[in-house]
Amino acid sequence: MVESVFERLPLGQMFMVGFDGCRLEEDHPLREVIERQRVGGVILFDRNVDGRRQNIRSPAQLKGLTASLHDLSPAPLLVAVDQEGGRVCRLKERDGFLPSCTAAELGRHEADPHGPVLAMARELREMGINLNLAPVVDLDIYPENPIIGRHGRSFGADPDLVVAQARAFIQAHHRAGIACALKHFPGHGSSRGDTHLGFVDVTDTWQEKELEPFARLIDHGLADCVMTAHVVNRQLDPDGLPATLSPPVLTGLLRQRLGFDGVIISDDLQMGAISGQWSYREAVQRAVLAGVDLLIVGNNLIRQPDAVAEGILAIEELFDRGRLDVARISRSLERIEKLKKNIQERVHGGKTGNP
Fold this sequence. Notes:
Layout: H1 2-8, E1 15-17, H2 30-35, E2 41-43, H3 59-72, E3 78-81, E4 83-85, E5 88-89, H4 103-107, H5 116-126, E6 131-132, H6 159-175, E7 179-185, H7 212-219, E8 225-228, H8 247-257, E9 263-265, H9 272-275, H10 280-290, E10 295-297, H11 307-320, H12 326-347
Parallel strand pairs: 1-2, 1-10, 2-3, 3-6, 6-7, 7-8, 8-9
Antiparallel strand pairs: 4-5
Helix pairs in contact: 5-6, 6-7, 10-11
């Protein structure tokens, strides 16, 4: 009985994975992940943490790679990058792509959905990418923040400014047929640490106004996805779980209080704030139980080529133990399918995504 349920549920759709290689060779292990495990998406990086090339060398090479990915997938595939601009930019000018500016630089000018961001979004579409893991809507509360403020990744400290700039950023992407992900929920701008490296607690620094950009952009219908933060915030979860693994933060706050019914996407589960405290199986299970729909496994910090297969087994174990029901997973799969359908409609001239 349980096995027949698993056969009907394409659990691989709940994963977005990174991989090595600038070409999809015939023996590339990603082929099986896409064809047989039916992974929901892939995330592309230009370079590894050690500086070596990972997926992106040039515009011509990238177009060939993404064409191969799309052709190989039996279902529409999410092909994602972090193309915020400035420091966090996978399509770099030195590799032949358009120049970009940071969110902080954009924040010093009037928001313009027809400006440089539209050119960037159109380049993403031309390259075969359909999901930009941006914009950052964290408030620049602590300018020396080692992962947000110091790198100019926030539009600014004023929620009105952040909402205006994020709206223009998202509208430009929607015009180009690209979906966006708001990040990092429920707010990373006040942190004093870097969740790539390990445990980060914002309990004493986080402010309620950090929710405003998320809430207002959700209300405006501009939230395709919301990406979770790995920060601990005991103001929101007294148990001290990182937001990615926290039912009170994701289900209680984001789903119920803010009314978000789109795709909740995790930040990379291999980051130190998660992998340093939980095994991969535990992280997958806790994230799903918290309310995550789409789980990122970047394979940039750590190599884990069997991440999708192991992740599927972890979710199946929740079924076996009676901790998860079919309806819950079906809702996640429906949200992911709807996101992909919305992207296709925008690409083919349907919805503009404008409010």
